[in-house]
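Figure 6 in text form: structure in, sequence out.
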């Protein structure tokens, strides 16, 4: 990815495009199980073909110049901030979380929260075109139950933003803040 044949900027444009609602093939649905046959239904940026890296996977899906110019959620000048920094520093830091999940001393620390509930008003926000919401069967429903426990009047659960894919908190930050404030105000007024 760092030394993508198309360059970091175009790699990121193609990658973010594929993870967005702008990519017309993005039509997530709940998977039935964590099996190879079900995961084969995920877009190739989640489960890549054996002979391709991420840069080769997203290259064919690069949006047109007109689509890039029309992209309101990630204008090219803003993407340039990301591509410049990733070009300078690489992707290691952003990928560290995936690696650490499988190292015992870190997973043990995360396990201390296993079985606990979220007992404060909370709001899950995701994009309705984000496969991450659905890729682990039953997780969305389990999260709803976990959030509801101990919370008399929970916020809206979940809140899926239409026409948005992955990374919604980055590319729709102001809207996320407004949604959180609105939910908090409703909760206060109904208390």
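Output sequence:
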């Amino acid at each position: 990815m760092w030394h993508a044949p198309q360059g970091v900027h175009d790699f990121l444009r193609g990658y973010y495009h594929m993870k967005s609602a702008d990519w017309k093939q993005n039509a997530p649905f709940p998977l039935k199980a964590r099996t190879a046959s079900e995961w084969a239904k995920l877009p190739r940026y989640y489960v890549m073909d054996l002979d391709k890296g991420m840069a080769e996977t997203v290259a064919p899906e690069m949006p047109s110049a007109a689509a890039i110019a029309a992209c309101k959620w990630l204008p090219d000048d803003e993407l340039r901030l990301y591509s410049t920094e990733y070009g300078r520093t690489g992707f290691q830091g952003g990928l560290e979380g995936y690696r650490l999940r499988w190292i015992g001393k870190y997973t043990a620390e995360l396990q201390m929260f296993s079985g606990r509930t979220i007992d404060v008003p909370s709001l899950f926000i995701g994009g309705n075109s984000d496969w991450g919401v659905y890729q682990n069967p039953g997780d969305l429903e389990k999260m709803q139950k976990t959030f509801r426990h101990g919370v008399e009047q929970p916020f809206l659960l979940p809140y899926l933003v239409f026409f948005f894919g992955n990374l919604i908190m980055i590319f729709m930050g102001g809207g996320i803040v407004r949604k959180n404030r609105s939910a908090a105000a409703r909760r206060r007024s109904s208390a």
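Caption detail: DSSP finds ten helices and two strands in the chain.
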